[in-house]
Amino acid sequence: LAKTTQPISMDSYEGQEVNITCSHNNIATNDYITWYQQFPSQGPRFIIQGYKTKVTNEVASLFIPADRKSSTLSLPRVSLSDTAVYYCLVGLDNDMRFGAGTRLTVKP
Amino acid sequence: EAQVTQNPRYLITVTGKKLTVTCSQNMNHEYMSWYRQDPGLGLRQIYYSMNVEVTDKGDVPEGYKVSRKEKRNFPLILESPSPNQTSLYFCASSLGLAGGSTDTQYFGPGTRLTVL
């Protein structure tokens, strides 16, 4: 299983763009990169998934360089409600593991 | 509404008293799993099930049992709970597509267990 490394915490202000980078040096050829969001006292919620280049949905963008050894979750114009823990997972199907995640705090 | 439900949401018990946390999903998902979440350790998988009657150990299975007699239900059993099993537990389910790239896991609301 590819191990992931993320910053433990990040602070931002409302309206800013937030980029959270995840390192996964030993990602396998068939692995996908998936990000989840978790609010306090709730279960994680799927945000976005990608394999290479760039993926965008209504919530976030995911940037994956050609070597796929890292990925960056981009949250545009964050609000206070984006305060949560963000997890980067690497793997295929259900063969993925959650790390400790990145605790994002958005300040007014 | 598509969802994963867990019961109870909160439970305080004593060491050695058997308990079961139920998990049910209404999305006809093949794959179900249990996680525990502890401060600083993220979510760790306890057990998972690829289909009915098929279960396997995750990363921290010691002290837990599961069963998958029906597709929609995946109860977590603690035969003899101990204080180190005090944690926040999540059940999750997903389609379980082999080779699928978009196998999103749907999580339940969590069960906060305290073992005294």
List the helices and strands and how they pair.
The complex is a heterodimer of chains A (108) and B (116).
Chain A (H helix, E strand, L loop, with lengths): L8 E5 L4 E6 L8 E7 L6 E6 L2 E4 L4 E4 L5 E6 L8 E8 L10 E6 L1
Parallel strand pairs in A: 1-9
Antiparallel strand pairs in A: 2-7, 3-4, 3-8, 5-6, 6-7, 8-9
Chain B lengths: L3 E4 L2 E4 L5 E7 L5 E8 L3 E10 L2 E4 L7 E2 L9 E3 L8 E8 L11 E2 L3 E5 L1
Parallel strand pairs in B: 2-11
Antiparallel strand pairs in B: 1-3, 3-8, 4-5, 4-9, 5-6, 7-8, 9-10, 9-11
In brief:
By secondary structure, chain A is mainly β.
Could you describe the 3D structure shown?
The complex is a heterodimer of chains A (108) and B (116). In chain A, a hairpin with a 6-residue loop joins strand 3 and strand 4. Chain A has strands spanning 9-13, 18-23, 32-38, 45-50, 53-56, 61-64, 70-75, 84-91, 102-107. Chain A has a five-stranded mixed β-sheet with strand order 1-9-8-3-4, with no helix packed on it. A four-stranded antiparallel β-sheet of chain A has the order 2-7-6-5, with no helix packed on it. Chain A has no helices and nine strands. The model of chain A has no long low-confidence stretch (mean pLDDT 91). Chain A is mainly beta and 108 residues long. In chain A, 0% of the residues lie in helices and 48% in strands. Chain B is an all-beta fold and 116 residues long. Chain B contains no helices and eleven strands. In chain B, the strands form two sheets. In chain B, strands 2, 4, 5, 6, 9, 10 and 11 form a seven-stranded mixed β-sheet that branches. A four-stranded antiparallel β-sheet of chain B has the order 1-3-8-7, with no helix packed on it. In chain B, strand 5 and strand 6 (54-57) form a beta hairpin. The N and C termini of chain B lie far apart (36 Å). The mean pLDDT of chain B is 92. Classes of the chains: A mainly beta (108), B mainly beta (116). Chain A binds chain B through residues 32, 34, 36, 41-46, 49, 51, 87, 92-94, 97-101, and chain B through 4, 31, 33, 35, 40-45, 48, 50, 59, 90, 92, 94, 96-110.
